[in-house]
Design goal:
Elements (H helix, E strand, L loop, with lengths): L1 E5 L9 E9 L5 E5 L4 E15 L2 E6 L2 E5 L5 E4 L7 E9 L3 H7 L6 E3 L4 H15 L6 H16 L9 H15 L6 H8 L3 H12 L3 H19 L4 H7 L5 H12 L3 H8 L1
Antiparallel strand pairs: 1-2, 2-8, 3-7, 4-5, 4-6, 4-7, 4-8, 6-9
Helix pairs in contact: 2-3, 4-5, 4-6, 7-9
């Protein structure tokens, strides 16, 4: 049994689906050597087979993916005449396809998947296509493509996140959440790092303690809000995650050398 969809629409977007499908292969299945102009990712749902690329031969089995990269000569086939295997796939292209693939974290030709989310996305996509023949939404297809790539991003990796990456993630978390009542403990919990280790890591790569970085960032954003001249001091305090206006004023003066009202007069 083979179910396949080819997207015939022309695109000039960063990402779009080229095709997707599912196949229960016959015992003597062979996909002849050829090249694709787009990324094509297969997931083996049953059995096993062989995948050849650049003179290298890979054995792939149930629960594994194999990746076909653009403009590389490949072939894949059943291991012997009595063996069968099944797989699903998704192909995608676009101006930003290289970057979207990079974001999955996959850096080779084959990989073991820990869950069936990728297969579920493809299955749901094929069901949607089958139920909406003639009125298929390109936005919906793009959503399925992004969901499939996101499922691949969740594949467990043996690579450890470096200290620099952890510090960068902490900084980004603070910058995206400073308007909430976050603390250094919240950041370490988000990163799943023990608090004392997080403190040392953060201080080493930013030169500041997590608590002080949060305060400095809030006051920096508060200065920008004061400069725009549209909000009261109490509103600005709330906007940067500090509910107590008196505490906010003390912090503001400690860091800038001026009270919020003095700062406003000076800059307006």
């Amino acid at each position: 049994m083979r179910k396949e969809f080819f997207n015939t629409k022309k695109h000039k977007t960063d990402l779009y689906m080229v095709n997707c499908g599912y196949e229960d292969c016959c015992p003597n299945f062979v996909c002849a050597p050829h090249m694709r102009k787009y990324y094509l990712i297969h997931y083996v749902t049953k059995g096993n087979g062989y995948y050849e690329v650049n003179g290298e031969k890979y054995s792939v089995g149930e629960g594994e993916i194999f990746v076909i990269y653009p403009n590389e000569l490949i072939t894949y086939y059943s291991p012997d005449i009595n063996n069968t295997w099944s797989f699903c796939w998704i192909g995608f292209s676009g101006n930003g396809a290289d970057e979207y693939f990079r974001l999955t974290g996959i850096d080779g030709y084959t990989k073991k998947i820990e869950n069936l989310e990728f297969y579920s996305v493809i299955s749901n996509c094929l069901n949607y296509i089958g139920e909406n023949t003639g009125s298929i939404s390109q936005l919906k297809l793009n959503a399925y493509t992004l969901n499939a790539l996101d499922a691949l991003k969740k594949i467990k990796s043996d690579k450890r996140v470096s200290a620099v990456e952890q510090a960068d993630r902490a900084v980004r978390y603070i910058e995206y959440n400073y308007m909430n009542a976050i603390t250094a403990k919240d950041v370490s919990t988000y990163l799943n790092i023990e608090r004392s280790h997080f403190y040392r890591l953060f201080k080493k790569y930013t030169g500041s303690s997590p608590e002080q970085y949060i305060i400095n960032y809030r006051i920096k954003r508060a200065c920008e809000l004061i400069n725009c001249g549209r909000y009261s001091v109490s509103e600005i305090a709330r906007f940067v995650g500090i509910c107590d206006i008196y505490y906010f004023s003390r912090l503001f003066k400690k860091i800038t050398g001026k009270s919020p009202s003095e700062y406003r007069k000076l800059h307006n």
